[in-house]
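Summary of Year 1 activities. Much of the first year was spent building the evaluation harness for sequence design. The harness presents a backbone, in tokenized form, and records the residue chosen at every position. We chose the following record to illustrate the format because it has been used consistently in internal testing since the harness was completed.
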């Protein structure tokens, strides 16, 4: 068993590569749609300003660890 801590992994996850991994593991279009929407949903600052996200997963999101595992499996085990 190997335990790794990849610095900045969640903040820098490439959306296109993540979606490629998701598409590899399921053909369900609704899953593709919702994962992509979730990844790209803008971040709202305290002052109301919306920040566009083009990489990374939401910090503390319940799906972030699952998506990270799918991504790592796809990247390193395939």
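For this record, the design step produced the sequence shown next.
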């Amino acid at each position: 068993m190997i335990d790794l801590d990849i610095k900045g992994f969640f903040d820098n996850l490439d959306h296109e590569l993540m979606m490629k991994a998701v598409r590899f593991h399921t053909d369900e279009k609704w899953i593709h749609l919702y994962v992509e929407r979730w990844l790209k949903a803008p971040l709202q600052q305290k002052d109301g300003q919306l920040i566009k996200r083009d990489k990374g997963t939401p910090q503390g999101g319940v799906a972030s660890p699952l998506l990270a595992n799918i991504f790592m499996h796809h990247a390193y085990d395939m």
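The chain is about 55% helix and 5% strand. Quantitative recovery figures across the full test set are reported in Table 2.
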